[in-house]
Specification:
Helices cover 85% and strands 2% of the residues. With 163 residues, the chain is mostly helical. The protein has a domain of 105 residues.
Amino acid sequence: MEEADNEQEIGGEDEEEPATPHEGPSGVGVSSWWTEWEWEQQLQAAERYVAAHEKAGTAFERMARAVEWMVEAAERTANEWGLYHEWAEWAEMRRREDAQEARMAEVERTGRGWKRPQLEAEEDKNEEADEGVEGDNEEEEEVRGEKEGGEEQEGDRGQAMEE
């Protein structure tokens, strides 16, 4: 029997199957060639998986940078908008101050209190009219006096001539 065992061992070496076969999914003996091919396929699949995840990671990093840029841009826009509003408020305040200064200068120039321009114009007209009436009255009185005095003088001359 030993010879038979030796012959089986010798004959076993000529076959493709190894002396100690690998176990497959169902416990069936599988050759090392098949196992190497399967491992290579799994390795390639894992490499593809890693490459896809690296791409996804790179994409997420780019998206994160883009979000940071958008946040910075939004902050700049908000700052610029805030600065614009501050400037607009300052300009409005300055316009009001200038208008107030102009009104004060007008008050100082005219020497009057706070009055509306239309009322001031009406008052000026009334004052001129009043002065004109008073002046006319005085002139009329003077003219009357001269005429009366002139008649007297003429009367005197007439009397002197009569004499």
